[in-house]
Amino acid sequence: MHAPDDTKTPRRPRGVFVLGLLAVLGAAVFAGFIALGIWQVHRRAWKHDLVARVDARVHAEPVMAPDRDRWLAVNTANDEYRRVKLTGTFAPEKSVRVRASTELGAGSWLLTPMRTQDGSEVIVNRGFVATTWCGGKAICASGPTGETTVVGLLRISEPKGAFLQANDPAHDRWYSRDVAAIAAAKGLDATAPYFVDADAASSPGRDGSDSPVGGLTVIAFPDNHLMYALTWFGLALMTLFGGWIVWKDERKKRRD
Protein backbone atom coordinates (compact mmCIF):
# COMPACT_ATOMS: atom_id res chain seq x y z
CA MET A 1 0.00 0.00 0.00
CA HIS A 2 1.14 3.53 -0.76
CA ALA A 3 1.21 6.19 1.98
CA PRO A 4 -1.32 8.97 1.39
CA ASP A 5 0.08 12.07 -0.27
CA ASP A 6 -0.36 14.99 2.15
CA THR A 7 1.03 17.57 -0.20
CA LYS A 8 -1.52 20.18 -1.31
CA THR A 9 -1.82 21.42 -4.83
CA PRO A 10 -0.74 25.10 -4.87
CA ARG A 11 -3.59 27.48 -5.57
CA ARG A 12 -3.51 28.71 -9.11
CA PRO A 13 -3.38 32.48 -9.75
CA ARG A 14 -6.76 34.19 -9.85
CA GLY A 15 -8.32 34.82 -13.20
CA VAL A 16 -8.56 38.24 -14.81
CA PHE A 17 -12.29 38.49 -14.08
CA VAL A 18 -11.84 37.71 -10.36
CA LEU A 19 -8.94 40.15 -10.07
CA GLY A 20 -10.94 42.84 -11.81
CA LEU A 21 -13.92 42.24 -9.50
CA LEU A 22 -11.68 42.43 -6.41
CA ALA A 23 -10.10 45.62 -7.71
CA VAL A 24 -13.48 47.28 -8.30
CA LEU A 25 -14.76 46.17 -4.89
CA GLY A 26 -11.59 47.35 -3.14
CA ALA A 27 -11.72 50.73 -4.90
CA ALA A 28 -15.39 51.19 -3.92
CA VAL A 29 -14.69 50.34 -0.27
CA PHE A 30 -11.65 52.63 -0.21
CA ALA A 31 -13.59 55.51 -1.78
CA GLY A 32 -16.44 54.96 0.68
CA PHE A 33 -14.14 55.14 3.71
CA ILE A 34 -12.45 58.27 2.35
CA ALA A 35 -15.83 59.91 1.72
CA LEU A 36 -16.97 59.14 5.28
CA GLY A 37 -13.74 60.56 6.69
CA ILE A 38 -14.08 63.77 4.67
CA TRP A 39 -17.73 64.06 5.78
CA GLN A 40 -16.63 63.87 9.42
CA VAL A 41 -14.03 66.59 8.80
CA HIS A 42 -16.77 68.83 7.41
CA ARG A 43 -19.05 67.93 10.34
CA ARG A 44 -16.27 68.90 12.76
CA ALA A 45 -15.90 72.31 11.12
CA TRP A 46 -19.69 72.78 11.22
CA LYS A 47 -19.81 71.80 14.91
CA HIS A 48 -17.04 74.26 15.83
CA ASP A 49 -18.87 77.03 13.97
CA LEU A 50 -22.09 76.13 15.79
CA VAL A 51 -20.35 76.23 19.19
CA ALA A 52 -18.88 79.64 18.37
CA ARG A 53 -22.27 81.01 17.30
CA VAL A 54 -24.03 79.66 20.39
CA ASP A 55 -21.32 81.02 22.67
CA ALA A 56 -21.76 84.46 21.10
CA ARG A 57 -25.54 84.29 21.62
CA VAL A 58 -25.28 83.18 25.25
CA HIS A 59 -22.97 86.04 26.20
CA ALA A 60 -24.68 88.76 24.13
CA GLU A 61 -26.92 91.44 25.55
CA PRO A 62 -30.53 90.21 25.73
CA VAL A 63 -32.89 91.15 22.93
CA MET A 64 -36.68 91.13 22.96
CA ALA A 65 -38.12 87.65 22.54
CA PRO A 66 -39.67 87.13 19.09
CA ASP A 67 -43.27 88.34 19.01
CA ARG A 68 -46.07 86.53 17.20
CA ASP A 69 -45.24 88.21 13.87
CA ARG A 70 -41.86 86.45 13.92
CA TRP A 71 -42.85 83.07 15.34
CA LEU A 72 -42.84 81.32 11.98
CA ALA A 73 -39.23 82.37 11.39
CA VAL A 74 -37.92 80.99 14.70
CA ASN A 75 -35.67 77.96 14.17
CA THR A 76 -32.91 76.00 15.85
CA ALA A 77 -30.08 77.17 13.61
CA ASN A 78 -30.67 80.89 14.10
CA ASP A 79 -32.37 81.21 17.49
CA GLU A 80 -31.58 78.32 19.85
CA TYR A 81 -29.85 79.62 23.03
CA ARG A 82 -30.32 83.26 22.02
CA ARG A 83 -30.41 85.49 25.09
CA VAL A 84 -33.82 87.16 25.23
CA LYS A 85 -36.05 89.10 27.59
CA LEU A 86 -39.81 89.36 27.84
CA THR A 87 -42.24 91.26 30.03
CA GLY A 88 -45.63 90.04 31.17
CA THR A 89 -47.63 88.40 33.93
CA PHE A 90 -47.22 84.81 35.08
CA ALA A 91 -50.19 82.42 35.25
CA PRO A 92 -49.00 80.05 38.01
CA GLU A 93 -52.30 78.18 38.06
CA LYS A 94 -51.40 76.79 34.61
CA SER A 95 -47.89 75.67 35.51
CA VAL A 96 -46.58 72.17 34.84
CA ARG A 97 -43.68 70.21 36.22
CA VAL A 98 -41.40 68.43 33.75
CA ARG A 99 -39.15 65.71 35.12
CA ALA A 100 -35.51 66.82 35.24
CA SER A 101 -32.10 65.65 36.36
CA THR A 102 -29.63 68.46 37.10
CA GLU A 103 -26.49 69.25 39.06
CA LEU A 104 -28.83 69.77 42.03
CA GLY A 105 -30.21 66.25 41.72
CA ALA A 106 -33.48 64.79 40.50
CA GLY A 107 -36.59 66.95 40.45
CA SER A 108 -38.56 68.98 37.95
CA TRP A 109 -38.46 72.00 35.71
CA LEU A 110 -41.27 74.40 36.61
CA LEU A 111 -42.83 75.71 33.40
CA THR A 112 -45.24 78.63 33.77
CA PRO A 113 -47.06 80.51 30.98
CA MET A 114 -46.46 84.26 30.81
CA ARG A 115 -49.06 86.53 29.25
CA THR A 116 -47.00 89.15 27.42
CA GLN A 117 -47.86 92.75 26.63
CA ASP A 118 -49.22 91.92 23.14
CA GLY A 119 -51.66 89.34 24.55
CA SER A 120 -49.75 86.28 23.44
CA GLU A 121 -48.32 83.68 25.80
CA VAL A 122 -44.78 82.39 26.20
CA ILE A 123 -43.98 79.39 28.36
CA VAL A 124 -41.14 80.17 30.76
CA ASN A 125 -38.99 77.51 32.37
CA ARG A 126 -38.64 79.23 35.73
CA GLY A 127 -36.03 76.72 36.84
CA PHE A 128 -35.45 73.61 38.91
CA VAL A 129 -37.56 72.57 41.90
CA ALA A 130 -37.04 69.57 44.18
CA THR A 131 -39.45 66.65 44.22
CA THR A 132 -40.86 67.86 47.56
CA TRP A 133 -41.46 71.45 46.41
CA CYS A 134 -45.13 72.42 46.57
CA GLY A 135 -45.98 68.92 47.74
CA GLY A 136 -45.14 67.56 44.30
CA LYS A 137 -47.62 69.89 42.61
CA ALA A 138 -46.95 72.80 40.24
CA ILE A 139 -49.41 75.49 41.32
CA CYS A 140 -47.78 77.11 44.34
CA ALA A 141 -48.10 80.89 44.04
CA SER A 142 -44.41 81.64 44.60
CA GLY A 143 -42.25 84.11 42.75
CA PRO A 144 -43.05 87.50 41.23
CA THR A 145 -46.63 88.70 40.94
CA GLY A 146 -47.94 91.35 38.60
CA GLU A 147 -45.99 92.51 35.58
CA THR A 148 -42.41 91.29 35.61
CA THR A 149 -39.47 90.96 33.21
CA VAL A 150 -37.65 87.70 32.63
CA VAL A 151 -34.25 87.28 30.99
CA GLY A 152 -33.14 83.89 29.74
CA LEU A 153 -32.24 81.64 26.83
CA LEU A 154 -34.65 80.92 24.00
CA ARG A 155 -35.19 77.18 23.60
CA ILE A 156 -36.97 75.29 20.84
CA SER A 157 -39.91 73.06 21.82
CA GLU A 158 -38.93 69.52 22.79
CA PRO A 159 -41.42 66.94 21.49
CA LYS A 160 -40.99 63.45 22.86
CA GLY A 161 -37.70 61.93 21.72
CA ALA A 162 -36.64 58.33 21.28
CA PHE A 163 -35.23 58.10 24.83
CA LEU A 164 -37.92 60.06 26.67
CA GLN A 165 -41.04 58.72 28.28
CA ALA A 166 -44.27 59.81 26.62
CA ASN A 167 -46.04 62.78 28.22
CA ASP A 168 -49.35 62.03 29.95
CA PRO A 169 -51.34 65.30 29.79
CA ALA A 170 -54.49 63.66 31.17
CA HIS A 171 -52.71 63.00 34.47
CA ASP A 172 -50.47 66.09 34.26
CA ARG A 173 -47.29 64.03 33.98
CA TRP A 174 -44.63 65.58 31.79
CA TYR A 175 -41.28 64.23 30.65
CA SER A 176 -40.41 66.58 27.77
CA ARG A 177 -40.89 70.31 27.30
CA ASP A 178 -43.35 70.00 24.45
CA VAL A 179 -44.74 73.52 24.10
CA ALA A 180 -47.67 72.61 21.84
CA ALA A 181 -48.79 69.74 24.08
CA ILE A 182 -48.56 71.86 27.24
CA ALA A 183 -50.47 74.72 25.61
CA ALA A 184 -53.23 72.35 24.50
CA ALA A 185 -53.49 70.72 27.92
CA LYS A 186 -53.71 74.05 29.73
CA GLY A 187 -56.04 75.74 27.26
CA LEU A 188 -53.55 78.39 26.18
CA ASP A 189 -54.19 80.48 23.09
CA ALA A 190 -51.62 82.18 20.84
CA THR A 191 -48.67 80.42 22.45
CA ALA A 192 -45.12 80.95 21.15
CA PRO A 193 -43.51 77.87 19.53
CA TYR A 194 -40.54 78.18 21.90
CA PHE A 195 -39.95 78.45 25.62
CA VAL A 196 -37.47 80.51 27.64
CA ASP A 197 -35.06 79.14 30.25
CA ALA A 198 -35.00 81.85 32.93
CA ASP A 199 -31.53 82.84 34.12
CA ALA A 200 -30.33 82.88 37.72
CA ALA A 201 -31.18 86.55 38.19
CA SER A 202 -34.78 86.00 37.08
CA SER A 203 -35.23 82.88 39.25
CA PRO A 204 -32.83 83.28 42.19
CA GLY A 205 -33.72 80.10 44.04
CA ARG A 206 -30.14 79.66 45.22
CA ASP A 207 -30.52 82.64 47.57
CA GLY A 208 -32.35 80.45 50.08
CA SER A 209 -35.84 81.41 48.97
CA ASP A 210 -38.47 78.86 48.10
CA SER A 211 -38.43 79.82 44.42
CA PRO A 212 -37.21 77.78 41.42
CA VAL A 213 -33.50 77.75 40.63
CA GLY A 214 -32.83 79.31 37.23
CA GLY A 215 -29.68 79.45 35.15
CA LEU A 216 -29.16 75.68 34.98
CA THR A 217 -29.32 75.32 31.20
CA VAL A 218 -26.76 72.78 30.05
CA ILE A 219 -25.12 73.74 26.78
CA ALA A 220 -23.03 70.86 25.49
CA PHE A 221 -22.28 69.67 21.97
CA PRO A 222 -20.52 66.28 21.70
CA ASP A 223 -17.52 66.59 19.40
CA ASN A 224 -16.20 63.16 18.41
CA HIS A 225 -15.85 63.98 14.72
CA LEU A 226 -12.03 63.94 14.68
CA MET A 227 -11.96 60.45 16.19
CA TYR A 228 -14.54 59.27 13.67
CA ALA A 229 -12.60 60.83 10.78
CA LEU A 230 -9.35 59.15 11.87
CA THR A 231 -11.21 55.83 12.15
CA TRP A 232 -12.58 56.06 8.59
CA PHE A 233 -9.22 57.15 7.16
CA GLY A 234 -7.54 54.30 9.07
CA LEU A 235 -9.94 51.80 7.54
CA ALA A 236 -9.17 53.25 4.10
CA LEU A 237 -5.46 52.64 4.71
CA MET A 238 -6.22 49.08 5.84
CA THR A 239 -8.10 48.56 2.58
CA LEU A 240 -5.05 49.71 0.63
CA PHE A 241 -2.86 47.39 2.69
CA GLY A 242 -5.20 44.46 1.99
CA GLY A 243 -5.07 45.24 -1.73
CA TRP A 244 -1.27 45.30 -1.60
CA ILE A 245 -1.23 41.87 0.11
CA VAL A 246 -3.45 40.41 -2.64
CA TRP A 247 -1.30 42.00 -5.38
CA LYS A 248 1.91 40.69 -3.81
CA ASP A 249 0.44 37.20 -3.46
CA GLU A 250 -0.69 37.17 -7.10
CA ARG A 251 2.75 38.28 -8.32
CA LYS A 252 4.41 35.49 -6.34
CA LYS A 253 2.07 32.81 -7.66
CA ARG A 254 2.46 33.96 -11.26
CA ARG A 255 6.24 34.07 -10.88
CA ASP A 256 6.27 30.57 -9.40
Give a quick summary of the entry:
The protein folds into two domains: 16-46 and 223-255; 82-207. Helix content is 33%, strand content 22%. It has helices at 16-58, 76-79, 179-185, 225-255, and strands at 63-64, 83-90, 96-102, 105-116, 121-130, 147-156, 191-198.
Which structural class should the secondary elements be placed in?
alpha+beta
The helix content, as a percent range, equals: 25-40%
| Secondary-structure element order, N to C | HEHEEEEEHEH
Task: Please give the radius of gyration in angstroms.
Answer: 30 Å
Q: How would you describe the shape?
A: elongated
Note the main sheet.
5 strands, mixed, barrel
Strand order of the largest sheet: 2-4-5-7-6
Number of helices: 4
Count of folded domains = 2
Number of strands: 7
Report the uncertain regions.
Answer: none
pLDDT averaged over residues: 85
Strand coverage percent: 15-25%
Task: Calculate the terminal CA-CA distance, rounded to whole Å.
Answer: 33 Å
